[in-house]
Specification:
The chain has 169 residues and is mainly alpha-helical. The protein contains eight helices and two strands; from the N terminus they run H-E-E-H-H-H-H-H-H-H. The chain has two domains: 93 residues, no CATH class; 67 residues, no CATH class. It has a two-stranded antiparallel ribbon with strand order 1-2. Helix 1 runs parallel beside helix 3 and helix 6 runs parallel beside helix 8. It is flat and about 50 Å long.
């Protein structure tokens, strides 16, 4: 009997968790041409790939985006700093409007150099307002795409309606 999609996703999360070392491994030497970007550990690639598999599974089963227990499991992976950059794809699992309830928890993970850009992108994609102060320091990021996503988020946030504010007629 084929497992249901939720069980398959839970198995993938368990697989990702099993790949993460118990203590933080040493940073590897930098990549050629990118002096501030270390090479990836093999487990980081594997965890990232599993997050991408989960994203594809979630896209084929959009009703699972409302499953808070699954998202709690995803957030546990995101919070595990030992997973290093492998967590990036898990952050992006929240990049949907339906996940806006997770925005505060994701924003609290900034600054984390392994996932800060993905968190900013996710806050923008979920249309989460009110995090410009948290995001603003990344306007001077040394990473071009992170600066771009920060500008995009701040432009969106400044134009967004302020929650709980009523207009007088």
């Amino acid at each position: 009997m084929k497992p249901n999609p939720r069980e398959e996703i839970e198995a993938l999360v368990a697989q990702a968790n099993a790949l993460v070392p118990g203590s933080a491994p040493a940073r590897l030497p930098p990549m050629r041409g990118f002096p501030h970007v270390p090479h990836w550990h093999n487990f980081e690639h594997s965890v990232w790939s599993i997050g991408e598999q989960i994203r594809q599974a979630m896209n084929s089963q959009p009703k699972l985006r409302g499953d808070s227990q699954l998202y709690s499991e995803f957030l546990a992976v995101v919070r595990n700093r030992q997973a290093m950059r492998g967590r990036q794809s898990f952050v992006l699992l929240f990049a949907y409007r339906a996940c806006i309830g997770w925005a505060r928890e994701l924003a609290s993970l900034i600054p984390d150099p392994d996932i800060d850009g993905q968190v900013i992108l996710t806050l923008y994609k979920m249309r989460a307002t009110g995090f410009s102060r948290v995001v603003a320091p990344f306007l001077s990021s040394s990473t071009t795409w992170v600066r771009k996503e920060t500008r995009r988020y701040i432009a969106f946030d400044l134009d967004a309606p302020i929650p709980h504010e009523t207009r007088s007629a």
